[in-house]
Amino acid sequence: MSQTPDQTPELSEETARAAAGAEPTAEARQRHAELSEAIDQARWRYYVLDQPTMSDAEFDKTLRELESLEAEFPGLRTPDSPTQKVGPPPSSTFAAVQHPQRLLSLDNAFSAEELDRWAQRAIRELGQQQIEKSGFLCELKIDGLAIDLVYEGGKLVRAATRGDGRVGEDVTDNVKTIKPIPQWLTGDDLPALLEVRGEVFLSVESFEKLNESLVADGKAPFANPRNSAAGSLRQKDPRITASRNLGFIAHGIGAVEGFEADRLSQVYDGLARWGLPVSSHTKLCTTLDEVWDYIGYFGEHRHSVEHELDGVVIKLDQRTVQDQLGSTSRAPRWAIAYKYPPEEVNTKLLDIKVNVGRTGRVTPYGEMEPVVVAGSTVGFATLHNASEVKRKGVLIGDTIVLRKAGDVIPEIVGPVVELRDGSETEFEMPTHCPACGTELRPEQEGDADIRCPNTRSCPAQLRERLFHLAGRSALDIEMLGGQAAGALLDNELLTDEGDLFDLDADKLVQAELFRTKAGNLTANARKLLDNLDEAKQRPLDRFLIALSIRHLGPGVAPDLADAFGDIDKIAAADVEALTEVEGVGPTLAQAIVDWFAVDWHRDIVTKWKAAGVQMVAEERELGEQTLAGLTFVVTGTISGYTRDSAAEAITSRGGKVSGSVSKKTAYVVVGESPGSKYDKAVSLKVPVLDAEGFEVLLNAGPDAASEVARIGEDA
Ligand SMILES: NC(=O)c1ccc[n+]([C@@H]2O[C@H](COP(=O)([O-])OP(=O)(O)OC[C@H]3O[C@@H](n4cnc5c(N)ncnc54)[C@H](O)[C@@H]3O)[C@@H](O)[C@H]2O)c1
Ligand SMILES: [Zn+2]
C-alpha cells in the first residue's frame, strides 16, 4: 500500500559517465554553493514567510541549473543539497509534527520530450503492457499549498503543512476553520487511519479581494493566489484563516489502515464517498496521446477552472505499478508534473506614465523592463487610474509581479516589497494634461477617473479620435495611421476632425511627411486623398461610430441609422425618441443628445456636409427569404406596382401569393380602390397594407414578420 522513498537518485547516461570520473572543479563548487544558497533562501521566503522574492520561473530555472551541475559533478549531490530536499524545516511559529508517511514533491516536465522521457522510462522498467493496463491518471496541478490531514476513525485529529517532507507545522486549529475540509468523515466503511494529502487554495477572485483589503489596511499584498493561500493558512490566529474563504481538494493519501484499493482512481472514489472534496477534472487516459489532449485542453481552459493551476500531474493509476517504480528522496517516479508556461514573472517597474485617451481620460500605465510572459514580450501594462495604483501599492522602481493570463491583457499584480532598497518613489498623478497643459479634473464629483477637459483641441485626444475615425468599423481610411495623424496635427492642418474632408493637395504638401524631395505629393499622400474621397460615401452608421460619441459602437449604430435615416434627424431627436430604437438605453440616448448639444460637435457635421459627405442610411440589402412563411393576397393595384410586379416582389423575397383571404395566413396588399377581398380582409381582421405599408414591409428585412404583425394590430 505504501510507497517507500529510496535514496537512489535517478542517473542519466550523462550523469553515469560523469560519475565515472570528474572531480568537481573549484568553479563548479563555487557556483554550486551560490545556487544552493539562493534556493534555500527562496524556499524560506516562499514556504515559511509566504513572501517570495523570486518568481516561480526563476526559481525553477535556478533549481534546474543546480540539477544539471550535479549531473555533471555527482560529487556535489550531497544529502543536504537543495535538489534532495522537499522544502525547509518548519518555522517556530507552529508546533512541529512528524508525518505518518513522508510527503514528497513532484518532478517536473517543461517540454514534450521531458514528459516522454518519463513515460519511456516507466515503460522500459515495467513493459508497455503493464503501463497501458495501469493507465495515466491526469489531474490538474492545483496552485496552492500542500496539506496533510490525519483522520482516525473518521475524525480529523491533525493537519500539518509539508515542511521538509518528514516534519511539518501543526496547523490543525486553522485547518478546522476551512469549510470544505470535513472534521468528521461519513460512511460505514471508514478506515481506522487515513492520511489524506491535498491542496489548500484561494480562488483568484478571493485573492484579489484579499489583496485589496490588505493594501487598504496599509499591509503588504500577497504576490499570487498560492502565497495568499499559504499566508492565510499559516496564521497564528485561526479566526483570520476562517475569514479567508479557503478551498481544498484532495489529491493523494499516505498511511492508511482498513482500506484497500488497486487504483488511485478508486482511492479518490473512496475519499469522495467519505465526504472529502476531490477534483472533477481528473481523467484516466490509456495512451500518451490522450494525455496530450488533456494537457492541451486545460492549457486552453486554464482560466475556467475554479482554482489556479500551473500544470497537469500525470500519475500511473495502478498502485502496484506505483510501488514497483518507487520514489527518489524528493519525488515519486510514478508521477510527473507537466508545467504550463509561467503566467507570472517578476520585472522592474521603471516608471509610471500617463496616457490621454480618446475621451480625455487620463490613464496611468507602468513602463517595465520588457519580459516574456505567457509567450509574448510585455513592456507596458495599464494601471487604470490613480486609486488603482494606490490599491496595488506599487512604487516606481519596485520589482513587481507581472501577470499575463492567456489572451488577457497584462496586469501588474503587486510589488515585491522585500526587494525595496529605499530608492523607490511614489507615483503622483499629474495635475495638468501632459499633452496640452490643461488642468485635469474628474468629469463628475466622485469619479475615479480624471480627464483633460480640453476635448476639442487637446492633441492627444484629437489624435486618438482620428485613429478611431480611420478605423475599420468607422470610416476605414487606410492611410490615416499614427504617423499621418501626427503629421496633420504637428503641421496644424486640422483644428479638429471637422476639417478632415477639406484636406487637399495644397494643404498636405505643407507637411514634410506628405512631400517628396522635389516638393510634390508622395504616393501615400495621394492615396490618403483618395481614401478620404471614398470615405465620404460611407453609410450613416459608420459616421455615427466615427464621431466618437460615448457608448455608441458598431453594435447599435446600424439600428440607429436605419431608424432615423439621416444625421439631422438623429441630431434633432430627444432621449425619448432615441430610446425607441432597440439597443439604445437611456445612457446612450443621453450621450447622443449631449454630444449634439456641443457647438463644435455640430460644426463637424456641418463642415463635413459642406465638403460633400452624405451621412445617410444604407439601403438595406434584402435577404432572399425575408418574407418566408408569410402569405399575401394582392388586390387592386398599388401605386408604383402592377399586380404582377407586386407578386414578383413578394415571391422573390420568399413570400407566397394566394388567391383567397383566410384569417390564419393571409396578409393583404390592397390598391387605391378597395375591392371585395379588401372588405373580406377587414372583416377577418387580417392585416391590410397600402402602398406605403407595402414598401415598409419589403424593406423590413429580417423583421418582416414582426412588421406585419405590427400592421395587423393597427388593422
Ligand atoms: N518563487 C520562489 O521563490 C519559490 C520557492 C520555492 C518553490 N517555488 C515554487 O514552488 C514549486 C515547487 O514546489 P513543490 O516542491 O511544492 O513542487 P511542485 O509544486 O512543483 O509540485 C509538488 C506539489 O504539487 C502539489 N499538487 C498540486 N496538485 C497536485 C495533484 N493533483 N497531485 C499531486 N500533487 C499536487 C502538491 O502539494 C505537491 O506537494 C515550483 O513551482 C516552484 O517554482 C517557488
Ligand atoms: Zn489635454
TrEMBL record:
Q: Name one GO biological process term.
A: DNA repair
Q: Where is the active site?
A: K141
| Annotated function | DNA ligase that catalyzes the formation of phosphodiester linkages between 5'-phosphoryl and 3'-hydroxyl groups in double-stranded DNA using NAD as a coenzyme and as the energy source for the reaction. It is essential for DNA replication and repair of damaged DNA.
**Recorded GO CC terms:** cytosol
The family database entries (PANTHER family) matched by this protein are listed as: CHROMOSOME TRANSMISSION FIDELITY FACTOR 18, DNA LIGASE
Catalyses:
NAD(+) + (deoxyribonucleotide)n-3'-hydroxyl + 5'-phospho-(deoxyribonucleotide)m = (deoxyribonucleotide)n+m + AMP + beta-nicotinamide D-nucleotide
Q: Which family does it belong to?
A: Belongs to the NAD-dependent DNA ligase family. LigA subfamily.
Recorded GO terms, molecular function?
A: DNA binding; DNA ligase (NAD+) activity; metal ion binding
Q: Which cofactor does it need?
A: Mg(2+); Mn(2+)
Task: Give the Polar residues compositional bias ranges.
Answer: 1-10
Gene3D superfamilies reported for this sequence: 5' to 3' exonuclease, C-terminal subdomain (1.10.150.20), 6.20.10.30, BRCT domain (3.40.50.10190), DNA ligase/mRNA capping enzyme (3.30.470.30), Helix hairpin bin (1.10.287.610), Nucleic acid-binding proteins (2.40.50.140)
UniProt-annotated stretches for the region Disordered: 1-34, 74-94
The UniProt keywords, alphabetically, are: DNA damage, DNA repair, DNA replication, Ligase, Magnesium, Manganese, Metal-binding, NAD, Zinc
Q: Tell me what gene encodes this.
A: ligA
User: Which top-rank group of organisms is this from?
Assistant: Bacteria
Record's protein name: DNA ligase
Residues reported to bind NAD(+): D56, A57, E58, F59, D60, S105, L106, E139, R162, E199, K315, K339
User: For binding Zn(2+), which residues are annotated in this chain's numbering?
Assistant: C433, C436, C452, C458
